[in-house]
Design a protein that fits this description.
The protein has helices at about 25-40, 45-55, 65-70, 75-85, 110-135, 140-170, and strands at about 60, 90-95, 100-105. The protein has a 3-stranded antiparallel beta sheet. It is elongated and about 65 Å long. It is mostly helical. Helix content is about 60%, strand content about 5%. α1 crosses α2 (about 45-55) and α5 packs antiparallel against α6 (about 140-170).
Length: about 180
């Protein structure tokens, strides 16, 4: 099983450089991280494709490159990309001068993922508050649902504060600006 090669050029072709990375170690990292993402609830093949994109220097690969890197079928790549696109973790771009698509990780992927999680928590909190009112605050079910809504409200506030702290901390790390 292979992984994305460090010498990948922006046009999607390998330029033949060998940066000295131990490709077997990179493969093991991809599989280990993918397994952890799977344990957290991500689909297995989507986790593998995501991890392969993450270790690619370009943060982008074609279907053929992903198939080769992970020793999987194009159909498996297609299904994984469909899932990753649906959850806004990758986007599809046309390769310049080609009819081939390449799949690109979003910049600041984790920041964006948690920002979207805030929107989801907001919807859940609203629905749970409505449910608690429907059930009645004096009923055990109403109290349980109201507590769950309060937990999501608390979690949302903590996430917003954490995101603000991350932006401030990120600025101290000397990282390039995220678009």
């Amino acid at each position: 099983m292979g992984t994305a090669r460090a010498g990948d050029r922006d046009d999607g072709r390998d330029d033949g450089r060998d940066d000295g990375r131990d490709q077997e170690a990179v493969s093991r990292f991809v599989e280990r991280f993918a397994a952890q993402l799977t344990d957290a609830g991500m689909q297995r093949m989507a986790a593998r494709v995501f991890a392969a994109l993450l270790v690619s220097d370009r943060g982008a690969m074609t279907s053929a490159e992903l198939s080769e890197a992970l020793s999987i079928s194009p159909a498996a790549v297609s299904g994984a990309i469909a899932y990753l696109s649906q959850v806004d973790m990758v986007s599809r771009e046309r390769e310049p001068g080609s009819r081939r698509d390449r799949y690109v990780l979003h910049n600041a992927i984790w920041y964006e993922t948690f920002a979207r999680r805030d929107q989801l928590l907001d919807r859940w909190e609203t629905t749970l508050r409505e449910g608690a009112a429907t059930l009645g605050p004096g009923s055990p079910a109403g109290a349980r649902v109201a507590e769950t809504a309060a937990f999501f409200a608390f979690l949302r506030q903590e996430i917003l504060g954490m995101m603000d702290r991350w932006r401030a901390h990120r600025a101290t790390l000397g990282l390039p600006d995220a678009p």
